[in-house]
């Protein structure tokens, strides 16, 4: 169990968006997060994807330079205090690992690539936590650089989440490439956006929500312009959007637009953003939208607090849902998890207390799900299980977290040499070894005899010592352990049985 965040503690969220990178630092005060500092830089990575969907070197350099400045502000923060998430551009980029490898090194912290639906869930959490609590049914809209998130929710519960590949940067590049505005271009952009969002009509009908809220990005920028132009504070209407489009058409190009409240960094993408926002209004029959203070970065901060305990961690309920959906043997999953946890606590001595606790929870989840593939195939269950996790809709999880779980499930049995894992990742290999040993020791689907068993490790060598009469009492388990020795021989690691 992770330690509860203390009063006065600092937490930081980094949002690697398609248009801007943001850093939000909050302090725990009386059970609430209060802003300490907010930094935003327009990086516009979303227009740095080439035709092959690779980030250009220039786009990567812009991102790295921004993260270096964020890293300076985060100096002295512990890993438990910082979470960085990446969204649509890095979901799409084929060479994202090239960018992320250096980005993690520069920032000094892990960076999670989150799915569109997980981005939507976190956006809702950020919006909900900064709104007065009420029973109203909410529609939350966030138009980013390359994606638009739509959420239906009530209080803190996001009930329907979806992400669509339409955004201010992408639509500006596609329909206003030279920054030129025309009625025909706005019409084409709006129709194209509605075509992408069309399926949302049946999922987000007008009778399912009471109040519409707009979060961050495009909607915040539009609201600022409208407020500065005397057209209402914190509210966007159909009429005000029509007025704003008429102003852009009169200017004829982005560089000639002179509107109060329009920031220079938003100018190149205002046309695309406005066309998408008008499409959302038309399609979902929105007359009035309130602007929300909360956004993705706030949702990340509150989710960090929820992750501190298993009973408030969204990932715990997600694991339980997957285990139930794929009809796993719950008792066996718990049994394997307990044994793997005991072994790991003995073996993992070189990591920090926080990392050890995080990895113990992760190992328990892998044990709980190690048999999810058996519903598809018994002989290749581990392969199907890994595939399921790599492609599952799993609220609370980042894509890289799911992939790591999938690797543990894939490697819990069978040959190790074909496992596409980083064998220099000591903690992961220790997790994997403990899971494999637990599966062997629990193969009879009853509590194993662990008294006198000692697991130890030095570097890339792991050994298991058995009591003198153990192998005679449990010959099948001893046979499987001897086979395990062979399995590790074709890897950089070794496993010895004494």
Comma- or semicolon-separated keywords:
Nucleotidyltransferase, domain 5, single chain, alpha/beta, Hypothetical protein af1432, 14 strands
Walkthrough of the structure:
- The structure is a single chain.
- This protein is α/β, with parallel strands linked by helices.
- The protein has 3 domains: 10-113, ATPase, nucleotide binding domain (Nucleotidyltransferase, domain 5, 2-Layer Sandwich), CATH 3.30.420; 131-292, Exopolyphosphatase. Domain 2 (Nucleotidyltransferase, domain 5, 2-Layer Sandwich), CATH 3.30.420; 310-448, Orthogonal Bundle (Hypothetical protein af1432), CATH 1.10.3210.
- The chain has helices at 57-73, 88-92, 96-107, 116-129, 168-175, 183-197, 200-203, 217-228, 238-251, 270-283, 296-306, 314-325, 330-347, 353-369, 381-391, 399-410, 426-441, 470-473, 475-488, and strands at 10-16, 20-29, 32-42, 82-86, 111-113, 137-143, 148-154, 157-164, 211-215, 235-237, 288-292, 454-458, 461-465, 494-497.
- The longest helix has 18 residues, at 330-347.
Short description:
The chain has 498 residues and is α/β, with parallel strands linked by helices.
Classified in CATH, the superfamily of the largest domain is: Exopolyphosphatase. Domain 2
CATH architecture of the largest domain: 2-Layer Sandwich
* Biggest beta sheet attributes: 6 strands, mixed
Would you tell me which CATH topology of the largest domain applies? Nucleotidyltransferase, domain 5
* CATH class type of the largest domain: Alpha Beta
Q: What amount of the residues lies in strands?
A: 15-25%
Structural class: alpha/beta
Integer tally of domains: 3
Q: Mean pLDDT, as a whole number?
A: 94
Query: How many strand units?
Result: 14
Radius of gyration: 25 Å
User: Reading side by side through the largest sheet, how are the strands ordered?
Assistant: 8-7-6-9-11-10
Helix content: 40-55%
Q: What's the helix count?
A: 19
Low-confidence stretches: none
